[in-house]
Amino acid sequence: MVSTSRRSDPDRVVLVTGVSRDLGRRSARAIATDPMVARVIGVDVVPPRGDVGDVSFVRADIRNPVIAKVIAKENVDTVVHMSVISTPGSSGGRGTMKELNVIGTMQLLAACQKAPSVKHLIVKSTTTMYGASNRDPAMFTEEMEPRRQPRSGYAKDVAEIEGYVRGLARRRPDVRVTTLRCANVIGPHVVSPLTSYFRLPLVPTVLGFDARMQFLHEQDLMDVLVHAIRTDLPGTFNIAGDGILMLSQALRRLRRPTVPMPGFAVGSVGSVLRSARLADFSPEQLSFLTYGRGVDTTRMRDLLGFEPSFTTEEAFADFAAGLTPTGGRVERLLTAAIDQLPPADQPPALSSVGGGHRG
Amino acid sequence: MGDAEIIPIGTRGRPGRGQGSGKPSAASRSLAPGPRKAAPKKERPAPQPEADQTVADDLGTPEATEPAGTERPAARRAPAYAEERAPTGGIPAGDWLVAFQHAARELFGEQWEPQLARFLAFLRRRVTGDYVVDEYGFDQEVTERFLMAALRPIAQKWFRIEVRGIENIPAEGGALVVSNHSGTIPVDGLMTLVTIHDRTGRFLRPLGADLVFKSPMVSTLARKSGATLACNEDAERMLRGGELVGVWPEGFKGIGKPYAERYKLQRFGRGGFVSAALRTQVPIIPLSVVGAEEIYPLVANLPSLARVLGLPYIPVTPLFPWLGPLGLVPLPSKWLLEFGEPIRTDEFDVGAAEDPMLVFNVTDEVRETIQSTLYSLLMQRQSVFR
Q1: Average pLDDT along chain B
Q2: Looking at chain A from residue 286 to 325, which residues have their Cβ under 8 Å from any Cβ of chain B?
Q3: CA A272 – CA A27 distance, rounded (Å)
Q4: To which H or E segment does residue A43 belong?
């Protein structure tokens, strides 16, 4: 909010990495519509598949020093790093994924450090870096560390990336570094390990565990990126919708039948599904589905001044609206039974659940 | 049942050796007192009269309509039989409906229709996931409707819990209930939960060990009933949110101690609960529970097996594992719960939580209070079971 009064005419040149993927492309477009932004340059190794609108696309690999030239030539002042991928997916194996994530970030940060024009760096990180275990506190705040250091996979990549980002913030104190730790992004258009899990017609769950989950709507992700560019506020922020949804509750809302099975069995089912390209169960995904995770968003609200327009529940409902239910027989039966009976007076109101609703 | 062949055992008071035949042997006949006469002729001993009565009632046979009290000689009783030996096509739908309506009236009373509608609406909410949990996963509806309802009879009828000093629990705002821990299985926590809810209407939010959240089923149930991990972050977060938080600082040392050491408080952790209370400036309410020690008297432990299974201990009680699942039934000891005077923490400075000596002193104060209350409650108790 400080910057809005300072600058009125569009003079910001924003570089967005990872625009080939849907979320990156749409975020870049959303940033381009902001009145403060003069130009948006999208960077990726492969061209985006959809319409990029006002975004000028530059085909460059952030893993090699070409990116520094792009930044210098275009006089970029704001870098939005969205090219951290959670799953190998189309890029190849785990090795490629790690290289894209870690080496790509290192190159990008090196280029940022060299470029005097860069004043603001926004990194889209994830709450996966907090891990998920039985020893987790209910709500992670930004100062907390994961209870178990991640040893592999996406979570480790993210931890390393955040380490390099902190390094840049130390070496270039004039660059305002904003790290946004976003909860699982969900929405009708999102393709991620979690959404493909929810899209399974028959959903395997971990027997005896019920994970607490928070979601961030795709629209809110774009809004928060634009908001972060506008406010220019350095720091690390957890970004998530209000409230908590239990995994069992979420699956019931989807009207999907579930198959509870022990954790190791879910893992092996996951590897079968991965080879069939139906879903991806990485170890951190499995622990997330077992223990879940919640993050505290007080800083997002009070410091960053951002208010998500979707709560966890609404974001999930928006996602669920696009799915065809594969179950729900019991519900129809109950509805039919209730319709037969005379309408009941209001159920005895439960006293409101104590504790803050902040999630 | 009625038409089963019944082989009588014994002689029904008549002389004889009771080998089932109607006639006593010649040798026993000579032993019997009274006139030497042949026993009255008897065809078949009668089967149990009650069972016979009900079957006969349904069939409407004339002899059976007499009240059971006037028992006639069994000799004239017709053998009971069912008209249709083969299974019929099933129970007619009308009978089902009548039975269902009757059952509904029994369950929900005369206002059964709205009651049932309400219950079905509740079921539908559960099935469609249309309910709210708080950030710790606390599901108030299920806790109130099922967990509390299931625990209440155990608390009131089985352990006959007697509560003292319930007025020490504040009606609102954060407070920390600190209790002794005993009983091999943390039943005392559950009983405290339901007692506090019934007496004050507030939900106690227990802090559980990480093992709780590692175990399948238990972890789900714990989160649903409002528990969270016993760590400083969660304790402070809950207390700041104005919750009534319950903590059992003895942990596994407390519940897993042998029966010989009953009512001897173990070390109170590292005093983390005190620093949480100091930081959030909420009162500490000491709670002394008498009776939980006797529910499963732990006479031995299997430490090596426990280590293999990753458990803190494996209890051996006089009933467990010898009686199998039956050994899990707790002994019906008499319970006394006394909530002590709140220990105020808002008088200390802001930095008090950083002063380890002060934290230790407050921890000791809480511990002493609970221990002395335990002794005085034990003096008042007549015996373990009364």
Answers
A1: 83
A2: 291-292, 294, 296
A3: 33
A4: strand A37-44
pLDDT tens-digit readout, A221-235: 999 999 999 998 999
Residue B50 in this model has a pLDDT that exceeds 50: no
Measure the CA–CA gap between B276 and B178, rounded to whole angstroms.
12
Burial class (CB in 10 A: 0-12, 13-18, 19+), A132: buried
Phi and psi (nearest 5°) for B196? Answer: -65, -40
Any idea which of A157-166, B78-87, B330-339 has the lowest mean pLDDT?
A: B78-87
How many Cβ pairs closer than 8 A exist between chain A and B? 141
Instruction: Strands of chain B (E only): list them.
Output: 162-164, 175-179, 204-208, 228-229, 244-247, 284-290, 300-301, 315-316, 336-339
Tens-place pLDDT, residues A313-331: 999 999 999 888 887 788 7
What are the chain B neighbours of A258 within 8 Å (beta carbons)?
A: none
CB contact under 8 A, B228 and A138: yes
Q: Using one digit for the tens of pLDDT, what is the confidence trace for B82-115?
A: 666 666 667 778 888 888 888 878 777 777 778 8
Record: contact B234-A294, CB cut-off 8 A: no
CB A42 within 8 A of CB A81: no
Q: Are strands B204-208 and B228-229 parallel, antiparallel or unpaired?
A: parallel
CA distances B179 to B143, B247, B270, Å, are 21, 6, 15
Contacts of B131 in chain A (CB under 8 A): 249
> What ipTM score was computed for the predicted complex, to two decimals?
0.85
Q: Which helix (H) or strand (E) holds A245?
A: strand A245-246
Q: Which of A134-143, B116-125, B160-169, B203-212 has the lowest mean pLDDT?
A: B116-125
Write down the pLDDT at residue B11: 62
> Of B133, B220, B234, which has the smallest distance from its Cβ to A209's Cβ?
B220
Chain B from 143 to 182: CB within 8 A of any A CB: 144
Residue range B298-313: mean pLDDT, rounded: 88
- The shortest CB-CB distance from A331 to any of B127, B201, B229 is to B127
Domains and CATH numbers, chain B: 140-295+330-380 (3.40.1130.10)
Whether pLDDT at A162 is above 80: yes
Contacts of A142 in chain B (CB under 8 A): none
Q: Which residue of B has its CA nearest to A329?
A: B127
- Is residue B336 helix, strand or coil? strand
CB B182 within 8 A of CB B262: yes
